[in-house]
Amino acid sequence: MQNTSTSADSQDPATGSFWHRQRHGRIWLIGLILILIILGIVIWRVIAARRAAAAAAHRVTLISIKTATATKGDINVYLNAIGTVTPVYTDSLTTQVNGLVTEVQYTEGQRVRKGQPLIEIDPRPYQATLLQAQGILERDQGLLAQAKMDLARYQAALARNAIAQQIVDDQDKLVQQDEGTVKNDQGSVQFDELQLEYCHISAPISGQVGLRLVDPGNVVQSSGATTLAVITQLQPITVVFTLPEDSLAPVAARLAQNAKLSVDAFDRAAQKKIASGELLALDNQIDTTTGTLKARAIFPNQDYALFPNQFVNTRLLVNTEQGVTLVPSSTVQQNGSPRLSM
Fold first, then answer.
1. In the chain, at which end, N or C, are there fewer CB atoms within 10 A of the end residue's CB?
2. CATH-assigned architecture of domain 123-198
3. What is the pLDDT of residues 259-301, one digit of tens each?
4. Domain 92-122+201-226 falls in which CATH fold?
5. Fold for domain 74-88+233-331?
6. Residue 166 contacts by C-beta under 8 Å, 6 or more apart in sequence?
7. Taking the complete model, does pTM exceed 0.85, yes or no?
8. Please, are residues 136 and 186 in contact by the beta-carbon 8 Å criterion?
9. DSSP letter for each residue of 20-47
10. CA-CA distance, 161 to 220, in Å (whole number)?
């Protein structure tokens, strides 16, 4: 006989569907529980972080206190500011005559002394003009000498009543006319000599000349704005810096006492001292836009450590407080919180 028995689940479709629904329900329940657990952990961590931040905000910072023995002594009062190195003199040389540049006698960046030749302009046209003026002067000087000689003869003849007074007077005025002509000629000669001197351009100050601006063969005009050379004085040199208007009173009071206020110049990082000098002058008005006053300090600059337009940090010694209580700076502790713990 054929066996036709089967399992109950396979025979009852309704029962199989029931167990399938139960299994899916358990999976959704487990997923929901996991989501709730993860959400709880996240909320707990957020609350814990906020509590930790609040506790850190109210935590008292402990500061170690160092002790030292206070002493009596002197202490300097300084004002710090930023400044710019500024030459005492800066000369831009131009020509006062027209002509051809024949020679440039300096090298770029050369340090020159006062009166040293720099540029030569063709002098020949001015030499010729001067020679003409000198010739006219000599001719008129001869005419003047002849007029004076005739005047002397007429005066001697008048003393013997040999000629009329009118002749003597006329000759006297002729002498005065010749004297005026000679003076005019002398002025022309001096003018031409000056024009000839302008052909030889020399350094008006001692300093450093910049890059070459003209070359031999260039034609320059006195009416033009062509700069032939620029010279800046390096020794001594000054530094212009600003002071807050609130600091004007103590500085001005010290200057009124003819005190020599020392000024130190430091590099851009304010770490290395470059040079030492003294305060030279204060400006005559406060800049209302910044509330500061310009000041100028002068430095010997023997080692050429300061250079025009260089940025520096300055430190002005305003006063020296004497007999004050001194403690090492390492013993002073500063904190924003008023609560301290030792």
1. N
2. Orthogonal Bundle (1.10)
3. 889 999 999 888 899 999 999 999 999 999 999 999 999 999 9
4. OB fold (Dihydrolipoamide Acetyltransferase, E2P) (2.40.50)
5. Elongation Factor Tu (Ef-tu); domain 3 (2.40.30)
6. none
7. no
8. no
9. HHHHHHHHHHHHHHHHHHHHHHHHHHHH
10. 65
